[in-house]
Amino acid sequence: MSRIAETFARLRSEGRIALMPYLTVGFPERESTLELVPALEAAGASLFELGVPFSDPLADGTTIQRATQRALEHGVTMADCLATVAELRARHVAAPLLLMGYYNPLLRYGIDRACADLASAGGDGWIIPDLPLEEAADLRQIAAKHQLDLILFIAPTTPPARIAQIVAHASGFIYIVSLTGVTGARQALAGNLADLIATVRQQTDLPLVVGFGISQPAHVAEVARIADGAIVGSALIDRLERLPPSERVTGAAAYIRELLSEVAG
Hints:
By secondary structure, the protein is α/β, with parallel strands linked by helices. Helices cover 47% and strands 14% of the residues. It contains 12 helices and 8 strands. The protein has an 8-stranded parallel β-barrel, surrounded by 10 helices. Helix 9 links the parallel strand 6 (174-177) and strand 7. The longest helix is centred in the N-terminal third of the chain and has 13 residues, at 78-90.
């Protein structure tokens, strides 16, 4: 059983939702990820989405764009992101670690090499928002060879026939995009989210994890009633931007505990 599958099986048996923070590798400072991930895991985070900096993050709103730009200014590369995963394992982080990035840096690094290096580092998979299903076969097959999952997306605009195609090729979990548009904290989640999740549930037993817009304990509690996991990204990055450097780690950990405060623990 993969680390991802084991994590969701354990949480399901405990009646708990998975909270998956997104962090841009190299933000706010070059080594921040190495301090933040262990603290957030201790605070209750179950998986991590680690962003690979890229100059054209088309699925991301202004908050993550700013974080990405800062990481690029720090000189963070794909190789640095892979080294970060290895160092987190050396620091005894047990949670699944997935690299989220755009296809261009992955292609430039080399798909075979990237998958081999991520597996060797102790990573668990890829989240590539600009890679459509029709063009994902190579990465999916090479990732599988290295026991890595390629996480696929389903959005509110995904037609039923395409949902069936996606779930047929999905592994690890399915990323449910909660709304149309780019990433960013919202006051409320989409009203049709439950219907979308029910449609996907009919076609797969894979865990369903909701992202885009989650920023409040009430959002996590809402998602917990209908899905297996919730991703918090922009709201966490916003929090890190506002915190004084000396309080970033403790403040981010407190935010994770706050987000989980309305669900079973």
